[in-house]
Amino acid sequence: MKWDNLKLGLFIGLFAPVVGLFAFYLWKFRHALSFGEFIQYLGLERHLITGVISISLVANAAFFTYFINTNKDNTAKGIFFVTIVYVVAALVLKFMYS
User: Fold this and answer.
1) The pLDDT of residue 14 is above 90
2) Residue percentage of the chain with pLDDT more than 70
3) C-alpha distances in angstroms, 2 versus 5, 6, 57?
4) Alpha helices in the chain (DSSP H)
5) How far apart (Å, rounded) are the C-alpha atoms in residues 37 and 45?
6) What is the Cα 48 distance to its own chain's centre?
């Protein structure tokens, strides 16, 4: 597998925030809610969604930094592109639910 690959970066950029979301759930809500209940809670408390998305994107920042520092620029470009899409979505949600 070629590690300097735009498609790999796009995949990592899409998947890493999901891992970040799950890590946030484990950190803050694992004792109070099941993961399904946590997702439903976010649906009810929509003002929390933008904060959760922002925290989830920390995973993308970590992967982006790793691939930039290892000179895998095409993979980093894919991660960066997906991160921008997530940020725009978070801003749209912020203005819709504020």
Assistant:
1) yes
2) 98
3) 6, 10, 24
4) 6-28, 35-44, 49-56, 58-69, 73-96
5) 12
6) 14
Q: Length of the chain in residues, anyone? A: 98
CA distances 58 to 14, 29, 69, Å, are 13, 18, 17
Nearest to 83 by CA among 16, 2, 6, 7: 16
pTM exceeds 0.70 = yes
What pLDDT score was predicted for residue 98?
A: 65
Q: How far is 37 from 81, CA to CA, in rounded Å?
A: 31
Per-residue pLDDT band at 2 (split at 50, 70, 90): confident
> What is the Cα–Cα distance from 83 to 17, expressed in whole angstroms?
9
Domain locations along the chain: 6-96
